[in-house]
Amino acid sequence: MKSGAYQFHTLGCKLNFAESSFLGRQLTEAGFHKAAEGEEPDVCIINSCTVTDTADKKGRQLIHRIRREHPDAFLVVTGCYAQLRGDEIAAMDGVDLVLGANDKFKLADYLSQNIAHQPVISDTRHMTPFFGACSKEDRTRYFLKIQDGCDCFCSYCAIPFARGRSRSGRIDDIVRSAHEVVENGGKEIILTGVNIGDFGKNTGERLIDLLHRLDAVEGLHRIRISSIEPDLLTDEIIDFTAGSKLFMPHFHIPLQSGSDKVLRIMHRRYDTALFAAKIHRIRQVLPNAFIGIDIIAGMRGETAADFEDSYRFVSGLEFAQLHVFPYSERAGTAALRQEGPVPEKEKKARTVRLIELSAQHKAAFVQAQTGTRHEVLWEASRKRGFLFGFTDNYIRVRTPYDASKINQLEEITLNEEHIAHDEV
Ligand code: SF4
Q1: Based on the number of CB atoms within 10 Å of its own CB, is 360 exposed (0-12), middle (13-18) or buried (19 or more)?
Q2: Distance from the alpha carbon of residue 359 to the mean position of ligand 1, in angstroms
């Protein structure tokens, strides 16, 4: 097929959303058009995720739903789940084409060649090309892909198998994309990747140099780093952020466990002392920064005592929010050889305790910010007569709906009425 209406369904991380947006523009340039509201699509593309079992399950459920809702559409499945379980997905009823993590960037070509029912999946071990992507036109806040893949092979993680070796774009190309965002009327960029701190591994360029170049982009108002590994978050990057007008006081740092023993089981490349030092450094130079932390509950080998160590360590940190993930067995990962699986009931109980701890810290962080001045970028999301946005330090806020405020920056004195309690 060389034309028709397309529809994307994206699961997972900001990287996937940036790539779906990029692929959509690629299809438009190739003669397709985005299906309008209520228009029956000719081709549906699912961009899948495989970070957990639940993500795989959501992918399968979405395949069944899309097939039910659009029985005549050509159904393409791509993304990380497709990369790792391509044959399994290709055998599912109603799936016409499966494209691997890098093969998806030739989507328009494969559609025009009428290829069907043969998974096209390149081997990630030899995957070197870096394909840039940016979520233009789809959002008020732009996801800009700067890096892909990972060489770390943490024992619980399937991402290196799904996305290949660490590689990144060139600083000049990324800065050019940032200028295009400004020309498009964009005010905020979120730098995204799999392991952003590993930027430049294949090019010899440095992340800090990219940050300085982006900091000088005229017309841009805000930049966020979506996530960065603690051992790659240098004091230089923290201090740079503190001195920058564009880089927001917002850090998302994967800890995964507050127990040094469990960090070793996970093959993580730091200990709790290093992690605590990073938090301390941020608090010294950016006392109001929003710090989000990823943590896994119920990792294989995590005893009840290990969990208590982890909980105690995390409780003592000055963070705003935890992203809690119950450990999920991933095929092919080293963790499967680790003794001591945690029973589901116990894993759930640990997850709930961490979620409760996160709620306490979030409430305390927001309370401490009440009465202070913050700049908000209002987005297009509308619900119950409100408009929503994020403060500079990543507090979700709302205001009575006013279309003229969409994509506008506004200084506010944060008060209780502003706080959007998990509304959108
Ligand atoms: S750093 Fe570890 S957890 Fe993160 S993508 Fe790489 S292997 Fe996975």
Answers
A1: exposed
A2: 26
Ligand 1 contact, 160 CB (< 6 A) = yes
Q: Tell whether ligand 1 has an atom less than 6 A from the beta carbon of residue 15.
A: no
Share of the chain above pLDDT 70, in %: 97
Query: Does ligand 1 lie within 6 Å of residue 52's CB atom?
Result: no
Tell me, using a 6 A CB cutoff, whether residue 320 lines ligand 1. Answer: no
Checking if the pLDDT of 137 tops 60, the result is no
**Domain range spanning residue 378?**
373-423
Any domain includes 127: no
300: left (phi over 0), alpha (psi -120 to 50) or beta: beta
From ligand 1's centre to the CA of 376, what distance in Å? Answer: 32
Residues 19 and 104 in one domain: yes
Question: Measured between alpha carbons, how far is 27 from 1 in angstroms, rounded to an integer?
Answer: 11
Higher confidence at residue 81 or residue 422?
Answer: 81
Same domain, yes or no: 151 and 37: no
The predicted model scores a pTM of 0.94
pLDDT band at 424 (very low <50, low <70, confident <90, very high): low
Task: Examine the domain organization and report whether 386 and 351 are in the same domain.
Answer: no
- Protein residue closest via CA to atom 1 of ligand 1: 152
SS3 assignment for 349-360:
HHHHHHHHHHHH
Q: Is the CB of 153 under 6 A from ligand 1?
A: yes
> pLDDT tens digits, residue range 251-291?
999 999 999 999 999 999 999 999 999 999 999 999 999 99
Ligand 1 within 6 A of CB of 157? yes
Residue to substitute in 16, 150, 256, 262 for testing ligand 1 pocket (most ligand atoms within 8 angstroms of CB): 150
* pLDDT-derived band at 122, boundaries 50, 70, 90: confident
* Å from CA of 41 to ligand 1 middle: 36
pLDDT at 77 over 60: yes
Q: Output the six-digit token pair for 137.
A: 């036109």
> SS3 for 17-44, per residue?
HHHHHHHHHHHHHCCEEECCCCCCCCEE
How many domains does the structure of the chain reveal?
3
Closest residue by CA, ligand 1 atom 8: 157
Pinpoint the alpha helices (H) of 316-402.
344-369
